[in-house]
Write a structure and sequence with these properties.
- The protein is an all-alpha fold.
- The protein has 16 helices and four strands.
- α9 runs antiparallel to α13.
């Protein structure tokens, strides 16, 4: 907004990041199979460093001001900001790569646990980084400790550029660790040959009764749909939860609602760290069903067609706890673990890259559809639709539990 944009421009900025990640995730996944993880991650971190520097430059008036005339009524800073978001999205398309690395470094029994630890790191970033950004904004804003920021050589450090330079430093540190500490893994050609020979005539290759699709094909497609259902659903809550709270409860403003959601996300990290213990008494399919039904329960507590004055805030608080702290982190991580085990000894990078892209598309599409539906039909209709989606996912997994269990242990 401070660069002269509107809410529409803000929407493009947010969507452009996901757009870049959707495009790059499958390519980086395939690249990791061909050139190894170190080379792939080096490329992604280089893109991230470039993108964060572009982001910081977008908030630097003396860099973008002379270029304003080239963009007519659009400020150069806005064009650079959207471009930076795309580049950072391209560099962030490594979910499939990192998951594939974990998958190839762990056995089947331990895989879901270690994938949950990886997800916990991601979850922590979602929870912590907005706080870090808020800290920098508070530090250098006009009424902050350092009013208006300061100049450090060619760097203009203000509330918009400082978070960008901080992320540049973090990405540079990660690149240094990658080049000095990280242990690469490369698939052996002999191992590939054995895998291809073994899977050519096993249970996974049998026809599933859906045209020419094999059991493996159907299982992979099913996991992609589960990924879309869980990712898309949580994206809707990320979009609607704060506006829902502020419009329904006089005691909630945007800051308090945001803090409540962030707190629930922090508890979700603890749930992820406990996945190892949970995995000792539950299978992946059981955790998926449990997670989906927990999300259904949380969503159900938000459905309300009566007077908002009779809608207690405790139901909203219970909902975000069930969704962010329990249902989504456990259920979605179990989907990742099940998918990886079904892929088995086959190359994981490309398939997990497509898996990540499917999730990113869901995060883009579901909120847009929910926004329109909420505007015309009300938020409760949206929540009822999500109950149907998540409930169908839980029933489907329960129905095909035996087949999924066999495919994930072959």
């Amino acid at each position: 907004m401070s660069l002269g944009g509107s809410k529409v421009t803000q929407g493009y900025c947010v969507a452009s990041f996901s757009f870049g990640r959707v495009l790059m995730s499958p390519y980086l996944g395939k690249m990791s199979e061909t050139y190894g993880y170190r080379t792939t991650l080096r490329l992604s971190l280089s893109l991230l460093i470039t993108g964060t520097l572009m982001y910081a430059a977008a908030g630097t008036p003396y860099l973008t001001g002379p270029l304003d005339g080239l963009f007519g009524t659009t400020r150069a800073g806005l064009a650079l900001l959207v471009s930076a978001q795309i580049v950072m999205g391209l560099g962030s398309g490594t979910l499939g790569v990192t998951r594939a690395y974990v998958a190839e470094s762990t056995g089947r029994e331990e895989r879901t646990k270690w994938l949950s630890y990886l997800t916990a790191v991601q979850y922590t970033g979602f929870t912590v980084m907005p706080v870090v950004g808020g800290f920098f904004c508070g530090l250098v804003k006009p009424s902050g400790v350092i009013p208006g920021g300061w100049r450090l050589g060619a760097l203009d450090l203000n509330e918009f550029t400082l978070p960008g330079y901080f992320m540049t430093a973090m990405a540079s540190l990660s690149l240094a660790l990658l080049l000095t500490v990280f242990k690469d893994k490369k698939r052996a050609e002999k191992k590939k040959a054995k895998v291809v020979e073994r899977v050519s005539d096993d249970y996974a290759s049998e026809k599933a009764g859906f045209g020419e699709f094999s059991r493996f094909d159907v299982a992979v497609l099913g996991c992609l749909m589960l990924n879309v259902a869980t990712k898309g659903s949580i994206a809707v809550y990320e979009t609607l939860s704060v506006p829902f709270a502020t419009s329904h409860f006089s005691s909630y403003d945007s800051q308090r609602a945001g803090f409540a959601v962030s707190s629930a996300g922090a508890l979700g990290v603890l749930a992820l760290l406990c996945m190892g213990l949970l995995g000792r008494c539950m299978t992946d399919t059981q955790m998926i069903v449990y997670g989906a039904l927990t999300m259904v329960a949380g969503t159900g507590s938000l459905v309300h067609f009566g007077d908002h004055k009779n809608f207690p805030p405790s139901r909203f608080e219970a909902a975000i706890f069930l969704l962010y702290s329990v249902g989504y982190p456990i259920g979605h991580t179990a989907v990742i673990g099940l998918f990886s085990k079904i892929v088995g000894g086959r190359p994981q990078g490309a398939l997990l890259g497509w898996f990540a892209s499917a999730g990113s598309l869901a995060r883009m599409g579901f909120p847009i559809l929910a926004g329109y539906a909420s505007s015309y039909l009300g938020s409760s209709v949206v929540f009822m639709a999500l109950i149907a989606v998540l409930g169908t996912a839980a029933v489907g997994v329960q129905y095909f539990t035996k087949e999924l269990a066999r495919l994930s242990t072959e």
